[in-house]
């Protein structure tokens, strides 16, 4: 007496899946998506794709082989499905996760600091996901459930205000605004970070930068840009600022063309009494 028709059909489906996996587009079918490998002609994208296909085929082939062994003596299709269903941990388990900083912070047994830098550059979808972490300190993983923090991490988010953050995210945070430093603090920063600069040049740089920030610019010079400008002036062995020197180094400080034109048009004001 032959095996039940349902089991024969199941074996055929398994064989067809193995054949599809070994087809040229087998890897794409497996992940239900497309992979684009773009290169200059002859630099190896086809070879890389073939290697990925061979690796996936080899691994998936072993998985299918094990499944075949598991259901080899199943009397019917429902019995075969039941046996496969009993192996959930083989397909959906924690060992298949690659923990990234968020999950690492949640799972850490020791108190940690989680830094989410420039959250305003992230997609709104990530911000929505982050709300779950900040409100309940847990991460939901499909098929695995909810992973809750054993130690509540200290979370620090930074933003450059490139876009408006959601009210929900702001509500869960203690909001601190860091403005441009006053002249004396910026002078101390320049002396600390560019110790080789002369005191006179450092004071001149701070005064010029503070004046430039009062102009209506798309982006006012940041502290890091004033440091870059100070370093470039030291490399040029500058002892003081003059119009030609400022114009030739202004791109270290101002990054937009219209801002450059506006600053150049106001250089007499910027450099007044700085000789």
Task: Summarize the entry for a quick read.
By secondary structure, this protein is mainly alpha-helical. Helices cover 53% and strands 6% of the residues. Helix 1 packs antiparallel against helix 3, helix 9 packs across helix 10 (199-213) and helix 9 (183-193) packs across helix 11.
Task: Describe the overall structure.
This protein has 275 residues and is mainly α. The chain folds into three domains: 5-91, no CATH class; 97-171, no CATH class; 183-270. The chain is 53% helix and 6% strand. It is built from 14 helices and four strands. It has helices at residues 5-22, 26-31, 45-70, 77-85, 88-91, 101-107, 124-136, 167-171, 183-193, 199-213, 223-235, 243-249, 257-265, 267-270; strands at residues 113-116, 138-141, 145-148, 154-157. Strands 1-4 form a two-stranded parallel ribbon. A two-stranded antiparallel sheet has the order 2-3. Strand 2 and strand 3 (145-148) form a beta hairpin. Helix 9 crosses helix 10. The protein is elongated, with a radius of gyration of 31 Å. Residues 16-40 have low confidence and may be disordered.
